[in-house]
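Hi everyone,

Forwarding the result from last night's run.
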Amino acid sequence: MLNKDILYVGVDDHDIDLFEGQYVVENGMSYNSYVIMDEKICIMDSVDKNFGKKWIDNIKKALDGKKPTYLVVSHMEPDHSSNIMTLCDEYKDVTVVYTAKASQMAFQFFGKKPNKELIVKENDTLDLGSHKLKFITAPFVHWPEVMFTYDETAKTIFTADAFGKFGTLDFDDPEGWSCEARRYYFGIVGKYGAQVQSVLKKISSFEIKTICPLHGPVLDDDISYYLKTYDTWSKYEAEDKGVFIAYASIYGNTEKACFKLKELLEAKGVHVSIADMAREDFHESIEDAFRYDRLVLASPTYNGGLFPVMNSFVEALIERNY
């Protein structure tokens, strides 16, 4: 429960090993969904296909015999949209609220449309009774149909995949929010810095007390920190001073050179992070490349070009607008 009116009905996935088929998630993943209890009850987003029954059970428990009026869909990626029709089958009169692009995707994904749908656009509002919802389009953060929803009454913003992190909600992350949120951001959203900047400007005048992402914990302790961090990341500015050394080594000689460089830099008081690209988590390395203000790439040649893992790493950085 977030407050007396907004309830959590999402699920934790403890069995997943790779998120989106590539990101290692040793601590699982959450698929978040919320219910706004009002004269007209509104469910915020669906969950992954493997958790339809659990999600419906959570909703029924939260509603305690009542029926929802709306399902707001922030994002049509399958880990959030797969159970839209499950809800529509359970509650025949529910109206699905989403953008025109999301409506097109719904037909493409399911071969049919929900029985009732409401297409919304920038700055449209929805009156639930006590709660007033305002819709903010956020295209390419990180899909084209994405929108945020701002609850003007609760000062709560539902941000789709933005502000998300890896890990289940029942995992007490000793590293806090930023580490896995950073890896999530630069892995998945990082290419779309300009689009993130655009939506941050749109919401800059809002009074925000709570951020409700589709992955990871609800954020309600220091909203300015999260907004500032996303501003830094989406401007491609360094978060910390230091050097990240990424290397590949065939016979160990490039590795020796890199550790010698690390030793010399640390003797001068410089913070150094170092990674063997053939052995360490690829996406952790992408995270560190963006985090620190200096980067060293060290690689032998191979087949007349860069060593394969280094070549892939460079391409991944370019793809994300490094």
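The chain has a mean pLDDT of 95.

Cheers,
N.
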